[in-house]
Specification:
Layout: H1 6-20, H2 25-44
């Protein structure tokens, strides 16, 4: 794979500037960076929600299911034909 030199970087910058303009470039860079960071965190398993305790970790014991949600007899699957 060929190396990317300064001339190639200038050509890429000009090609990006033409359709998007100078005002939207910082916006695009910021959204691209946050998207890459979010992807990296999801791949490595890091999550910003991991720091907050869940309902079960807060000390409340789990509540039993209501009798209305329980089934009295197991549901049988229909035989395959």
């Amino acid at each position: 794979m060929p190396n990317i030199g300064p001339l190639e970087l200038v050509v890429i910058l000009v090609v990006v500037l033409l359709p998007f303009g100078a005002k939207r470039l910082p916006e695009l860079g910021k959204s691209l960076g946050s998207g890459m960071r979010e992807f990296k965190d999801s791949v490595t398993g890091k999550d910003s929600d991991d720091k907050a305790p869940t309902e079960l970790e807060a000390g409340d014991p789990p509540q039993p299911a209501d009798a209305a949600t329980r089934t009295e007899a197991p549901v049988e699957a229909e035989p395959r034909t």
